[in-house]
Design a protein that fits this description.
Strand content: under 5%
Strand order of the largest sheet: 1-2
Largest sheet: 2 strands, antiparallel
Helix content: 55-70%
Distance between the termini: 47 Å
Order of helices and strands: HHHHHHHHHHEEHHH
């Protein structure tokens, strides 16, 4: 979701007989539900997969501050501004927790940020779409954070201890974000015809990118099997996408909004909603860096990092001064 298409570095899922003794012992611990901690022995591929996934997740939280931060000065009331400011601050905190969790695997925060700025590391495709109206802020909270919760709650039970523990607080805060987004849309949908039309327009633009967030279909998700075996990934992309759609349709009905999918209908036999074909070409184009805001988002992050260099240098100098004084 916030970590899409993570490469495990393993070409195929090996049988138990193909594993080394150390790998079998590791897999036995994972299968038994024993959390893997930073100093525990672990396969190099497992460590690298976690670094890729957690760092991509952290980058997504940080870059995800930008579409909403753009509206902080334009919120229609002091109440809405305070709510949005708290949410953006939460996202920064989520990035901090996740960078710290990734650092336990032997990579520095500077390395992760350098890879992001160089275009070597990715972040979620959803944050490369523009926020054109105030209704987009509510739609992001409702759909994007709703999809995030669907994916992140299982991560609270993933095999790597620092990651699973970080996700507990993240999920609690994301649930608030979803509620504030839905509340914002409720206000718009109960308002004027123009306000409801604005909410519908935002839903039309964000619906398909939101359900793409779960990643490509299972038969094209080549690394999912290994991540599932390691219990880094607990549910498949299509399973989570279906749960999200089933949850969201009644919410849209409550708002009086129409989801922009003419093929969306209840399938009594399956007990789920059927939905239309997803434009995976668009998804891949955004992932490759060609989305509406890819270059803008990355350039903004690089500039913010460079502009903050003086402050990081001051913190280091202050810490060194305290160290010398204590000595």
């Amino acid at each position: 979701m916030y970590a899409q298409m993570v490469d495990t570095g393993v070409k195929k899922l090996r049988t138990r007989g193909e594993l080394s003794d150390a790998e079998r012992a590791f897999q036995d611990r994972v299968d038994a539900g024993i959390k893997i901690e930073p100093k525990d022995a672990m396969p190099e591929a497992y460590r690298r997969t976690l670094i890729r996934q957690i760092s991509q997740h952290a980058h997504s939280e940080i870059v995800g501050m930008l579409p909403e931060g753009n509206w902080l000065t334009r919120a229609p009331s002091l109440k809405r501004k305070a709510i949005l400011m708290a949410k953006v601050q939460d996202e920064g905190g989520h990035g901090l927790y996740l960078y710290a969790a990734a650092e336990t695997l032997g990579i520095s925060r500077d390395e992760m940020i350098e890879e992001l700025h160089a275009g070597k590391a990715k972040y979620s495709s959803i944050f490369n779409y523009p926020t054109l109206t105030w209704a987009d802020i509510g739609t992001i909270g409702w759909l994007v954070d709703g999809a995030a919760i669907m994916n992140q709650i299982p991560l609270c039970q993933c095999s790597y201890g620092p990651y699973s523990r970080a996700m507990i607080r993240v999920c609690k805060e994301e649930s608030f974000h979803m509620r504030q987004g839905f509340d914002l849309l409720c206000a718009l949908c109960k308002g004027t015809d123009e306000q409801k039309a604005m909410a519908q327009d935002a839903l039309n633009r964000w619906w398909w990118p939101s359900i793409m967030m779960f990643g490509p279909p299972d038969d094209e998700s080549t690394h999912s099997a290994q991540s599932a075996a390691w219990k880094i990934k607990l549910f498949s992309n299509d399973t989570l996408r279906q749960r999200f759609i089933d949850q969201t349709v009644p919410q849209a009905d409550y708002l009086g909004l129409k989801l922009p999918d003419p093929d969306l209908k209840w399938n009594a036999e399956r007990g789920h909603y059927d939905y239309g074909a997803i434009d995976w070409a668009e998804f891949m184009n955004v992932v490759k860096g060609n989305g509406p805001c890819n270059r803008e988002r990355l350039a903004t992050r690089v500039k913010a990092y460079e502009d903050g260099a003086w402050f990081r240098d001051a913190l280091v100098a202050h810490a060194e001064k305290r160290r010398r004084k204590a000595a």
